[in-house]
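Figure S4 source data
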Amino acid sequence: MSWLPRSRTARRRLMILGVTAPILALATGVALYAMRGSISFFYTPSQALAAHVPPGQAIQLGGLVRTGSVVKKADGEVDFVVADRRSSAPVAYRGVLPDLFREGQGVVAIGAYDGAGVFDARQILAKHDERYMPPELASALKKQGEWRGDGAAPTYSAP
C-alpha cells in the first residue's frame, strides 16, 4: 500500500482520524435531527411569502404592526397585520400583549401559519426602539429600505 505514510506516528494519526471522523459525523447528525423541531427561522412577511412557508412550520415573523389593523375581540383574541414594504401578513394572537406592543412599531410574532394563511402567534415580542430590535429584523428592514429607528410612520400605505 504505497498511499500509506511511512512513519508509524503518521499511520497512527491516520487511523485515529479514520475512527473519530465517522463518530463526529454521526454525533452531529443525531444532534441536528434532535433539534429539528426547535429550530425557528426568521422571516419578514415578504420573505415568508417568497419562501412558501408551509402551514404548521414554526417560524418567527417580524415587521411593523400596520396602523389601524389591531382588532381586540371579546374572546381575548387580538388580530392585527404585520407588514414590511412589500407584503403583509394577518396575525391572530390569544393572550396578553406586551406593554410595548402598539401600531406602527416593530414586532416579532412566534408561531406558524394556519391553512388559511393567517399567522397563528403563540408569543409576541415588541420593541421600544431600534436598540431592542432583534438583529434579524433590523437587518431585513434595512435591506428593504424600511428602517425607521426614529419611530417615523411607515412610508407605505395600507392596501
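Figure S5 source data
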Amino acid sequence: MGFDQYHEPPEELPPATRTFARLCASLTEEAEAIGWYEQRLAVEPDPVAQAIMRDAQGEEFKHFSMDLEFLLRRTPIWREIAEGVLFQPGDIVEHGEEAEAEAIEGGESGGGASDEDRSASLSIGGLRGEAR
C-alpha cells in the first residue's frame, strides 16, 4: 500500500491509529483547499463565480473544522493546548507557549489516565475552575 499518511507499516498500526492518520490527512487536504479557494477568490473578477467559490470555500471550512474536532476529541492533550490558544485575545505565540507548558507540566503525556479522566479535566470551564 502506498499511502503517504503512514510512516510505519499500516498492517502494524492499530485501527484507531490508522483512522487518526486518515483524519490528519483529511485535515491537511481541507486546509490546502481553503488556501486554493482563497487564491482563486483573490484573482476572480466575476462576482457570480466569486459567490460560487466563496460558498465552496465555506464547505471546506466546515470539513476542516469537523476533522479538527474529531482529532481533538481523540487527543486530550492536543485539545488542552488548543483551548489555551484558540479564540483567545492577545498574543497567539504567547498563548501557545503557556498552553503547551501547562499541558506538559500538568503531566499530560497522552498515556496513563483514561480518555474520560483527561477530557473531564480539559474543559474550558475546568480551566476557569467552573463546571462545563
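Residues 107-132 have pLDDT under 50 and may be disordered. Residues 32 and 60 are 9 Å apart (CA to CA).
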